[in-house]
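Hi team,

Below is the intake form for Sulfatase-like hydrolase/transferase from Paenibacillus apii. Please confirm the fields before the structure is written into the shared record.

FORM ID: S-0412
PROTEIN: Sulfatase-like hydrolase/transferase
ORGANISM: Paenibacillus apii
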Amino acid sequence: MKKRLYLLPSILFLLFFAYGRILLYLQKDISVDFTSLYAPALKDIGIGILILLFLYALSKVSLIASYVLALVLGIFHLANVEYIYALDHVVNLKDITMASDKEFIAGTLFHVSFPVYSILLMASLLASIFCQRKLPLLQLKTKRYSLLAFAGLLILYLALAVYSSGDWKNGNFVSASIRNSVALLTFNDEDLTDYPPDIERQINTSQQLKEGEYLLGNHTGKKNILMVVMEGIPGAYSPANQEYLNIPNEIKLTSLDKIKAHSLILPNYITHNNQTIRGMYSLVSGDYPKLDASTPKAYEYLQKDPSYREELLPKLLKNRGYNTAFIQGAVLEYMSKGDFMTAAGFDTVIGGESFNSPYVPFGWGPDDKAFFEQSQKYIDELNAKGKPWFATMLTVGTHHPYAVTDDYAKNYPSRKAAAVAYLNEALSGFIDYIDHSSFAKDTLVLFVSDESHGVNDQPYGSNWGIFAAYSPDINGQIINDGVFGQKDILLSLLDYADPDLDAYTTGRSVFRKYTEDSPILFASHYNGDVFYSTEKGTVYQVDNSGQLYSLTSENGELFSGKYERTSLSDSDLKKKILTYRNYIDKSSAEDQRIVITKDKEIPLADGSESIITDGQFITLPAESYVDVQVDYAASAMADPDWLVLKFEDYIGHKSVRMIDKQNGSGAITFRFYNKKVVYGYAFNLKTALHSNDYSGADKAIRINRITVEFPKTAPSAAPTATPSPGASAGPAAAPSPTASSGTEHVEVVDMDSGSE
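The structure came back. Fields below:
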């Protein structure tokens, strides 16, 4: 009997391991039945047994190592549960780079969605290791045999993982993560760069903008435009879409019914990739974002000389007499959205730092009710300037783990559903504010999404965005059933704002009805799938293993309740799709140097930390040095003052630099060597003032420029600079002419040599 009790933790672990799937089905309102569950549940139990076996073998070699590995595997499984819950995808190992990003952790781990399940799974797994050692079964007499057994089981597990399904509904979560990650690392290494000369027309359109029938009636232009970008909201939540496409969903943004009498709806609206910075880039640039996870185009835009940058939507409207403003809930430093939106041409840029007194504490920024209410004063100020205006608002409350209280969430089947309901209430109040404002009759309002957090049973649900336009110019509810994407917004708003727009402009406007379809591409960088369509109702998919499929909708629309999926062997079509993807993903800036931010002044208060930059998501080339250069100048520092710069990245590099009055301006380079290509690299840089005599004087640090450079060899050495107080100097190098010319203090910190 006692020996049987030793098996109890292992049995409980297997049950909890498999129950994660049922938990997600229940939370995501997917039908739980034997037919859909038995095969993947058996895979979960089989993989769970394999995990227990190689943890047992490892425990015979090193008990501590087995506990550490158990923690890693358990946390990885739980991370997948959270990821699937939030985004309907498993974790890609390249996304693990965000696991130590401070802003990401502060936002994402603000609330664990399934705390009881998480505790029970981890406790049963750790207890299994302890109890397994009490069992006489499978006794391995020597560490050598134990190590061989562990290695063999691990190889078997990895082989099963690589050849298992990459879809979480059909495969084990951890195995699906490994499979997708391996596929992304090994597939499509062909250099498909033989671009046809008319590729822009092949991936966008050859149509002229004004070929389509204008749907809004007559207007004089020069009206206000407000674009409300809602974090992660898919088109499946639109009541009009649900009715038109006959795709029911329990989650509904019923607040949009308030605009029904004067609205234009796009049921077939695409977000081209995942991640906010990519979606926002596409909305204001009229361009595709990169379809992979490499350095976002927003950063590449910042690298260009201002006189050679393409004019983006805010600048184009500014040229037409508009005042412009960008307002978001998250802090501006994260993803450098503040720098990008300023470069894009917004006159005023406001971030989460400007929002106080939230109703719900939340790691990412103000909850949606607080955001919409407090944004009204900024819009009123913009309207009071007496010129037409363009404002873009970006919410954050529906980002995982969702800005709702626990009591509020109890009334809904999931925290995601609760967060959308909370957004719905906040949006309803905001629409009332618009309707009762002095500018109501002179304003076009767009309700769109930056990305989609996924839709159950939709093969490309993570690319289904929401679009609803609201204006007195619109009579009744107009359904434009054409296929449009985020890249079409720029020309659409120019079409609305400027009746004199060149008649020969190439492109498409959401406010026009076209008789012909146009090509469109989209992707998910979570799993590497690429989609291409030239005819509504048929979408071609190249999955991350290189297999080509056609997806044909039952209703003839882009999105449908059912699809027919057919495997194809058309190598020319597959090559064309991947060539298009490579063209979209190619870098438009010099890869050897990236400007992260410049000309930023940060006020300093004694002791409190301020974020300088965070969440960059850049790609590090292989076999190169990485130099993060900070060119700074601190003002109004007294003799007893000292300033701290804290650098930390997910790889584990950390450094604290101390600056006093003597070295109050200068440049610091944080350096390390990078062996393999890294995607999604991010670092966190903070500053804090420490003063023995803080009298309230205006003290600040000015960041002249932060750059990341990738020299293939270590820059030539220069005389060692005098270190700041309390800091050890790393090996010095010749300063970058841009980063440190004319400064008083230059310091190079070689983090690979342990100088911190």
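SUMMARY LINE: The first helix runs from residue 2 to 27.

Thanks, M.
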